[in-house]
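In response to the reviewer comment on reproducibility (Comment 2.3), we provide here a single inverse folding case reported in full, input and output, so that an independent group could reproduce the run without further information from us. The structure tokens appear first.
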């Protein structure tokens, strides 16, 4: 059977295990020899016991687990050609020419570069006597399919990244818990949520928890934000509300590109309204714990589709990323999506927020 490897890379997210499980089982079902690559690209570079054959039962009882049971890492070595050369040798040694990568845009970019270089890497391995000419011919083509695992939902091309829904569940539970204590003491709470340069978690969490104010990177606060927030909070209190909730995305900024931090917001509220105010930074709690039903099923569907894409690929087929479009699993050109995602980050860096939102909207 064809050699197929699956690995997770970059920050973990809930639902990655469901995706790994689906890749393994669909691969075995279609007659492939399936391998786990443990610890992401680092495991691919290191080889040895990091690349192990997967069996049907080795992915039993992982669908409900958060994180990724095969480990993930941010790998510096793979960014250098020398690291990628070692990785290629390790894959050829096991007959692996199909890879499913589950990660964010950085991990998918790395995979695509690897594929572009593949024939020159094999050439060098033959030249230096590390693989045979026969191996070079037999394993001449590398096929890659990507899936986006991230709680941030910051990837152009998919409606939901694997992990976002679970992170939202975690955030909502936390806000509900905070509300009961805030109510008791008539307090204002400022909650910082993750998302890097993306405000998706903050917006959806805010909408579903009746937050009074939300700060996100894509809509930088104008210079009048202190007046606006104070007006809003005092108006809520004057109608009898006993608490206020403010959500700050970790990447929130103002129009000068300066960070809007939970502490800045606290000072404004305390100085102007003298409200009893506390900050809660949710941190990695958002990325942990069991995946939601949605993320489990999403991981399963994406994983199965990724394997089917690889099995249908020809040497000319572009690498794809498996995405969710409405309720459909679709295959999109990997590099096109990565480049769009990078263009969003660039537009935000250039303070061209309208363009950033438009580009993301076109995803
Ligand atoms: O990309 C996922 C994410 O959790 C972001 O929301 C956050 O900014 C970042 O990763 C945190 O990275 P680390 O786990 O390395 O601290």
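Designed residues, in position order:
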């Amino acid at each position: 059977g064809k050699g197929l490897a699956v690995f997770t890379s970059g920050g973990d997210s809930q639902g990655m295990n469901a995706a790994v499980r689906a890749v393994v089982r669909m691969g075995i079902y279609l007659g492939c020899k399936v391998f786990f690559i443990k610890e992401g690209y680092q495991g691919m570079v290191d080889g040895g016991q990091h690349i192990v054959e997967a069996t049907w039962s080795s992915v039993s009882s992982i669908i409900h687990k958060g994180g990724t049971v095969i480990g993930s890492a941010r790998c510096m070595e793979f960014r250098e050609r020398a690291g990628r050369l070692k990785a290629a040798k390790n894959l050829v040694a096991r007959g692996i020419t199909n890879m499913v990568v589950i990660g964010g845009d950085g991990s998918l970019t790395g995979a695509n570069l690897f594929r572009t270089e593949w024939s020159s890497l094999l050439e060098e391995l033959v030249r230096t006597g590390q693989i045979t000419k026969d191996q070079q011919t037999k394993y001449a083509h590398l096929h890659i399919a990507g899936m986006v695992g991230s709680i941030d939902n910051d990837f152009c091309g998919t409606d939901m990244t694997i992990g976002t829904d679970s992170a939202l569940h975690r955030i909502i539970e936390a806000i509900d818990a905070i509300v009961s204590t805030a109510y008791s003491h008539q307090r204002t709470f400022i909650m910082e949520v993750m998302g890097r340069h993306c405000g998706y978690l903050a917006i959806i969490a805010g909408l579903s928890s009746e937050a009074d104010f939300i700060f996100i990177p894509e809509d930088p606060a104008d210079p009048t934000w202190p007046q606006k927030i104070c007006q809003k909070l005092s108006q809520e209190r004057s109608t009898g509300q006993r608490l206020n909730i403010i959500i700050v995305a970790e990447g929130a900024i103002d129009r000068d590109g300066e960070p809007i931090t939970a502490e800045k917001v606290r000072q404004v509220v305390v100085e102007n309204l003298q409200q009893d105010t506390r900050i809660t930074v949710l941190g990695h709690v958002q990325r942990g714990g069991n995946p939601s039903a949605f993320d489990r099923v999403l991981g399963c569907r994406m994983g199965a589709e990724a394997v089917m894409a690889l099995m249908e690929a020809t040497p000319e087929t572009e690498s794809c990323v498996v995405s969710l479009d409405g309720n459909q699993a679709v295959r999109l050109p990997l590099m096109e999506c990565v480049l769009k995602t990078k263009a969003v980050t660039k537009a935000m860096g250039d303070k061209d927020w309208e363009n950033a939102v438009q580009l993301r909207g076109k995803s």
